[in-house]
UniProtKB/TrEMBL annotation:
SMART domains: PGAM (SM00855). Substrate binds at residues 41-48, 54-55, 93, 120-123, 131, 147-148, 215-216. Its EC number is 5.4.2.11. It comes from the Eukaryota. Gene3D superfamilies: Phosphoglycerate mutase-like. GO terms for biological process: glycolytic process. Coiled coil: none annotated. CDD domains: HP_PGM_like (cd07067). This is Phosphoglycerate mutase. It comes from Discostella pseudostelligera. Transmembrane segments: none annotated. PROSITE patterns: PG_MUTASE (PS00175).
Length: 287
């Protein structure tokens, strides 16, 4: 939405005041404009720094990660983007990322929803292992298949493992299989329904949305948004702490942005060379 109209719309809604004088002007509000969806992968975590498979292990941001996402918040503010609602995972590296962004944009008051469906992909029995040592043990090809193939999951953990979600109180009330791990495909199978059922209604209601999440949960989401093929998504890496801005049309289909890195339609905010270097860094975690 146009900034002024958007803020009038959201302030009036917030105060419970009737916003649009009649249904026709409300429709005009909603059709004359684009919907903005901002995706942010968390900043560098302590285990990104140590090069360990992380998945659902709840590690914090590193000092550099904090800096990255403070900068991400500033970039969102400078771009004039004013999200109305926010979503994140149950993991502190993404939650803290969102907090920094909302602080920098002076939007700490907007509604925030946390959902496990936006978590990082569960890395099964690889969680906690050093990525390079895993390459040395199993070979580069095998590890690349575990990291980036669409549907080959890493080895599972069972209920006796500290990494099984059944042993973590935050997942109480959710029923996970005894043998648990996730591929990008199964990650997509929980991210996409969550997006459709919980985030799409917000976008359709005229809200602009920010999602702070993870490398692989966001790979799943952009695969869905941009209809990216299984082979192509294997090559796609998402940099830490870098806002990725989608503009969606009335059917919530992405509108290709100028400067978008193919195959994405959204554009990254910030120094484009530095972003390319960050993407390369993610790729090279297993050389
Ligand atoms: O370890 C992880 O959970 C993820 C993201 O940090 O790693 P990768 O990029 O190897 O999928």
């Amino acid at each position: 939405m146009f900034a002024a109209a958007r803020s009038a719309f959201s302030i009036a809604s917030r105060n419970g005041v009737r916003v649009a004088p009649n249904a026709r002007s409300l429709a005009a509000f909603q059709t004359a404009d684009k919907h903005t969806l901002v995706l942010v992968r968390h900043g560098e975590s302590t285990w990104n720094l140590e090069n360990k498979f992380t998945g659902w292990v709840d590690v914090p941001l590193s000092p550099k990660g904090h800096e990255e996402v403070i900068e991400a918040g500033k970039l969102i503010k400078e771009a004039g983007i004013v999200p109305n609602v926010a979503f994140t995972s149950l993991q502190k590296r993404a939650i803290r990322t969102l907090w920094h962004v909302l602080e920098q944009t002076d939007l700490m008051w907007i509604p925030v929803t946390k959902a496990w469906q936006l978590n990082e992909r569960h890395y099964g029995a690889l969680q906690g292992l050093d990525k390079q040592q895993t390459v040395d043990k199993h070979g580069k090809e095998k590890v690349l298949i575990w990291r980036r193939s669409y549907d080959v999951p890493p080895p599972t953990v069972d209920r006796s493992s500290e990494h099984h979600p059944g042993n973590d109180p935050r997942y109480a009330g959710f029923d996970f299989p005894d043998e648990w791990t996730e591929s990008l495909k199964t990650t997509l199978e929980r991210v996409t329904p969550y997006y459709e059922q919980n985030i799409v209604p917000e976008l359709k209601a005229g809200k602009d949305v920010i999602i702070a999440a993870h490398g692989n949960s966001l790979r799943a989401l952009v695969k869905h948004l941009d209809n990216i093929g299984e082979d192509v998504i294997a090559e796609l890496n998402i940099p830490t702490g870098t806002p990725l801005v989608y503009e969606l049309d009335d059917d919530l289909k992405p509108i290709k942005q100028e400067g978008a890195f193919s195959p994405l339609s959204g554009r990254y905010l910030g120094d484009q060379d530095a972003i390319r270097a960050r993407i390369e860094g993610v790729k090279n975690q297993t050389k």
